[in-house]
Amino acid sequence: MRSPLFAAAAFVALATVSADVKERTTSGAASAVQPARSAPDPQKEERLKWFREAKYGLFIHWGLYAVPAGEWNGKRSLGLGEWIMNRSHIPVGDYQKLAAQFNPVKYNAEEWVRLAKDAGMKYIVITSKHHDGFAMFKSKASAYNIVDATPFKRDILKELADACARQGMRLGFYYSQSQDWHEPNGAGNIWDFGPDDKKDYDQYLRSKAEPQVRELLTGYGPVALIWFDTPRMMTGDRAQRFAGIVRSLQPNTLIDGRLGTEGDYRSTGDNVIPHEVSGDAWEVPATINHTWGYRKDDTDWKSPGQIAFKLIDIVSKGGNYLLNVGPMADGVIPQPSQDILRTVGRWLQVNGEAVYGAGPTPFGDELGEPSNRGRKDVRGDLLVYPQMQWRVTTKPGKLYFTLFDEPRASFALPRMQNAVKRAYRLADGAPVEVKTENGRPVLIIERPIFDPMATVIVVEVEGTKVQPIG
Ligand code: H79
Asked: SS3 for 347?
């Protein structure tokens, strides 16, 4: 049990780190530092409205790398599935032969969108071109694309865009603007083309990356966002050129946090969930197993309960969760991924009020306490022992306590100025008894607990905004 003194220290430390975190780079591999935040921008806030409500999205990493699926020449290639070309230093001439084998006859865009809907996700982001340089859409800028280079010949993105339009799902495109291992002048492929600083990088940007981003914003209807990644060499006006293309073609399209200039929202590092609350718009991109692109040997799936915890944890800190699946080369999303997403989706169907459009915790002590006496690690991150028992999200006049463990005793509410009006279970509306113990309101929670994965108790309070004490 933590002492009140330590709790106070934790609060200060957590508050301190948030200021630092805002300033530092957020991409897993990015070297560009996030620019300082500028003055509030009403247009940006308008663009962000849906994003701030949405909270939960489906990330899809799909490309030629689904064919080798983590194995090259009969040997396992360790690491992320979509990095196989880089990890195994596969020459362009060999890797591009995968295109002739890419024939995902079981691909069904309507089913994918249906899955995202069943999962309770409010937007989809799919790789239009990953670092390997292969475009999953018809492109005039490069013949290395799904229509011109594969036996499949169907424009995967167009089919997905049409299905999203039909089913009312927002769609965004991941686009690797900097790394392109297929192009002599793209960043990243040093095994075929030598060091990046000897390349005519702007030639690559002008002839492929910029035209392709233009294509994505003209041929596929309204684009919810462009998800740029690893902003290597995005110096000078390069990042701004991409921003200009996006803003001029579709002013409502969001730009993520990894372009290399200020985007509309902040991206955390891959699979990094911050320890503290932030009112900025931000998003955690994360894997459902360990890889983004399909690997046949990675079956270490997160459980539905783990996914539900991460979602609520992120929402209680003010962010969005962009959870990835890696479809196989035949066009099927691995069945375990589908089952996990649908299980969380069923929970959200009952408990979504605590998630969609919900605000962060007004408290914060429940998130955890600093380890290592509050010292930071080499990246400037505070090491924290997270508390995993419960999280809280908010709407005006309401607190949603999501309990992940069966409380062993009555549940003392965090101290606040607001009086408690009543409490009830979100799933079925059953009232929850509120008592006063030692001058504090406590919830008497029935055991066994209603939903062992996660039970939401709504606490209605006086006033719209909760004022914590201490
Ligand atoms: O698209 C997903 C990743 O492929 C991409 N971001 C997410 C959303 C990403 N790009 N770079 N990184 C993540 C950082 C990659 C680091 C590593 Fe590696 C790749 C570690 C192992 C393989 C580079 C190559 C560093 C060591 C070997």
From this structure: helix
CA-CA distance, 354 to 308, in Å (whole number)? 12
Strand partners, 390: 403
The protein residue whose alpha carbon is closest to atom 26 in ligand 1 is: 87
Kindly report the number of other CB atoms within 10 A of residue 225's CB atom: 27
Whether a cis peptide bond, with omega within 30° of 0, leads into 448 is yes
Rg (CA), the chain: 23
Q: Rounded mean pLDDT of the chain? A: 92
- Which among 270, 284, 292 is the best mutation to test ligand 1's pocket, defined by most ligand atoms within 8 Å of the CB? 270
Classify residue 260 by its DSSP letter: S
Map residue 132 onto helix, strand or coil.
Answer: coil
Closest CA to 328 of 318, 317, 338, 313: 338
**Phi, psi dihedrals of residue 280, rounded to the nearest 5°:** -65, 160
Residue 42, CA distances (Å) to 38, 250, 264, 419 in order = 12, 17, 11, 35
Pairing verdict, β 398-403 and 390-395: antiparallel
- Per the structure block, which two tokens stand in for 106? 């079981």
Residue ranges in 88-189 assigned as alpha helix (H)? 92-95, 98-101, 109-118, 146-149, 156-167
Average pLDDT of the residues in 401-422: 95
Report pLDDT digits (tens) over 95-112. Answer: 999 999 999 999 999 999
What own/partner pairs with CB < 8 Å and gap ≥ 24 does 232-236 have? 232/29, 232/30, 232/31, 232/32, 232/178, 232/179, 232/187, 232/188, 232/196, 233/178, 233/187, 233/196, 233/201, 234/32, 234/177, 234/178, 234/259, 234/260, 234/261, 235/260
Measured distance CA(260)–CA(264) in Å, rounded: 12
Is pLDDT of 317 > 50? yes
Q: What pTM did the predictor assign?
A: 0.92
Helix spans in 317-425 (H): 335-351
Closest Cα to atom 27 of ligand 1: 87
Residue 459's φ and ψ, nearest 5 degrees, are -115, 115
DSSP string for residues in 215-248: HHHHSSS---EEEE---TT--TTHHHHHHHHHHH
The reply to whether ligand 1 has any atom less than 6 angstroms from the CB of 83 is yes
The structure tokens listed for 192 are 């075929």
Distance 29 CA to ligand 1 centre (A): 6
**223-232 confidence digits (pLDDT tens):** 999 999 999 9
Contact 387, 421 (CB under 8 A): no
Task: Tell how far CA 396 is from the center of its chain.
Answer: 26
Around Cβ 23, how many Cβ atoms within 10 Å?
Answer: 12
What is the Cα–Cα distance from 396 to 413, expressed in whole angstroms? 17
Point out the ligand 1 atom lying closest to the alpha carbon of residue 176: 1
Tokens (6 digits) for 12: 């200060």
- Strand bridging mode 282-287 / 390-395: unpaired
